[in-house]
Amino acid sequence: MSGSETEDRAEADGGAVTGGAMTGGRAVPDGRAEGTVLAGDIVDADTAADADADGDGPAAEPTRRRRRPVRTSLVLLAATAVAGAGGLAATGTIGGDGTGTSEAAPAGPARTATVEKRTLTRGETVDGKLGYGEATPVRAGTSGGSEPEAGADAKDGGKPADSGGTLTWLPDEGEVLERGDAVYGVDEQKVPLLYGSTPLYRTLDVGSEGNDVRLLEKNLAALGHTGFTVDDEYTSGTAQAVEDWQRDLGREETGEVAPGEAVVAGGARRVAQVESARGDSASGDVLTWTGTRRTVTVDLEAQYEDLVEEGTKATVALPDGTEVQARVTDVGNAATAKPAEGGGGSEGGADEATLPVELTVKDQKKLGRYQAAPVDVTLAAESREDALAVPVNALVARKGGGYAVQAVTGSDVEYRPVELGLFAGGMVEVSGDGITEGLKVAVPK
């Protein structure tokens, strides 16, 4: 692998490791012990790979770190140069032909690792938020709004009705409301939740026809009422079922349904915040609510849009270190500028914009009791199955370029050149003559 290819890999992996001049075939970071590797520093991969045993290699020039919120989840190729150079500081440089003998290699390595066959996944780790999605308002005297079907979280709206009255009942924050449950109460009459996407925008009575009639009848049937056919026609059978429903709600049994007598939403809802109090006038925002499933949202920098699409796998790390699996379920189409620090508008141009990304966690139980929390989201960008891999710090830089590992066979230790593949999670894919699964390799200090 050439120096430019190494640098490209390091930039693609998006991180940084210890920098410093290459002296005598070893990394000497400013003010640190030899062989120290710290996340967050920069090293020039060409300098590390080309450093020779005479110590005349040039000092690495630092490059700009990747802007937050994207943080690397990888150990970069540059780290291999530093770790390998640290190994050479103790053992000497491999010959120019890249071959070593047990006599040239150290005897009795302090630590060893095993060449493993495993799946390596490269990804990017970004900041995310665990919660229930965007909260939307519910207004007294409205019939709900045009929403997608169950499971979506669109805004609730609707055509106001002649409401008035006094709020006499309100749900608790965090309460989950399902079909038929009261959303709030006015003058001791409950206003229930119905599922659907068509708001109740007019009074429905015998003779009415349309999608709103079908929505009403579908909900009545789901609540156990009978005597009618679910279709677009409001019949006398529908009116009788409505009277039975109104009796259950403690409302006047009129057999007709007016706007504002029910709230329509795409599915069950969780009360986020109660905006009003009992005794207040039944007008304006009564409460806000969200979906019932916890989701993860990410404001992803637009330049990394190619990392995600619907179905992209991700790993979510909770504050306690627990990891759960998630999938991308929505990627916003419109990029929005990042908010300026301290408020007051936005900053930067197109390269500062972000895309809203939503991820769904199928196994909600694994989220524990967290209702809202900052999380780390690792998006899987590339994966390699059945890769032979060793820890990154098992690599040793070869004179003239390239890398090797110190193969431990019995009491002998010999250098074996390797070709490098994918880097992920502190491991690197390796291949070459004599590199097999189960081979022990030295891990220099």
Task: Provide the fold topology.
Layout: H1 3-13, E1 21-23, E2 26-28, H2 45-50, E3 71-72, H3 77-91, E4 112-114, E5 116-131, E6 136-139, E7 167-169, E8 176-177, E9 182-186, E10 189-195, H4 211-222, H5 236-249, E11 263-265, E12 269-274, E13 285-290, E14 295-301, E15 313-317, E16 323-331, E17 336-337, E18 353-360, E19 373-391, E20 396-397, E21 403-409, E22 412-424, E23 427-431, E24 440-442
Parallel strand pairs: 10-11
Antiparallel strand pairs: 1-2, 3-5, 4-24, 5-14, 5-19, 6-13, 7-9, 8-12, 9-10, 12-13, 14-18, 15-16, 15-19, 16-18, 17-18, 19-23, 20-21, 21-22, 21-24, 22-23
Q: How would you explain this protein's 3D organization?
A:
This protein has about 450 residues and is α+β, with helices and mostly antiparallel strands. The radius of gyration is 32 Å and the shape is elongated. The chain is about 15% helix and about 30% strand. The strands form four sheets. A six-stranded antiparallel β-barrel has the order 5-14-18-16-15-19. It has a four-stranded antiparallel beta sheet with strand order 6-13-12-8, with no helix packed on it. It has a four-stranded mixed beta sheet with strand order 7-9-10-11. It has helices at about 5-15, 45-50, 75-90, 210-220, 235-250; strands spanning about 20-25, 25-30, 70, 110-115, 115-130, 135-140, 165-170, 175, 180-185, 190-195, 265, 270-275, 285-290, 295-300, 315, 325-330, 335, 355-360, 375-390, 395, 405-410, 410-425, 425-430, 440.
